[in-house]
């Protein structure tokens, strides 16, 4: 994967960050689905929704608990890849 990122214009620390982001997203997606049932996900989201700062979680609780795992993964991966592509096209910044 690091070779593919380098071919796409990311090297060094930027490539490592992109690699880690993709890896953690994949792990997180798998962990969210296995072995949780919709009921367990509903309960986890309900707990998170009780936080006063999480009004949007409460508003979207049904969608969050019952989302299609394949659609969720594809959409999330597309967002991450769009960000990686944008970073690869951006002018290089000097690291301090």
Polypeptide structure, described:
The chain is mostly helical and 96 residues long. The two termini are 26 Å apart.
In short:
The chain is 74% helix and 0% strand.
Question: Which properties best describe this structure?
Answer:
about 100 residues; elongated; single chain
- Radius of gyration, whole Å: 17 Å
Judged by helices, strands and strand pairing, the structural class is: mainly alpha
Total E-strand runs: 0
Overall, the morphology is: elongated
Number of helices: 6
Question: Gap between N and C termini, in Å?
Answer: 26 Å
Give a quick account of the main beta sheet: strands, pairing sense, barrel closure. Answer: none
What are the SSEs and their pairings?
Blueprint: H1 2-7, H2 12-33, H3 38-49, H4 55-59, H5 61-65, H6 69-89
